[in-house]
Amino acid sequence: MNTMEIKPAARTENIRYAIRDVVVEADRLKKQGANILHLNIGNPNAFDFTTPEWMSEAVFKAIKDNKNGYADSLGIPEARQAILEEAGRKGIKNVTDEDVVVGTGVSEVIEMCLSALVNPGENFLIPNPGYPLYNALVSKLDTTLNKYTLDEGKNWEPDMDELRKKINDKTRAIIIINPNNPTGSLYSRKVLEEIIDVANEHNLVIFSDEIYDRILYDGETHTSTASLADDVPVLTLNGLAKNYLVPGWRVGWAVFSGDRKKLENYKEAVFKLARARLSTTHPFQFAIKPALSSPKTYFDDLIQKLTPRRDLTYKRLNEIEGMSVTKPKGAFYAFPKFDFKVEDDMKLIMDILHKKHVLMVPGSGFGWDRPDHFRIVFLPQPEILTEAYNKLEEYMKEKVKGK
Question: Residue 35 contacts by C-beta under 8 Å, 6 or more apart in sequence?
Answer without folding.
Answer: 357
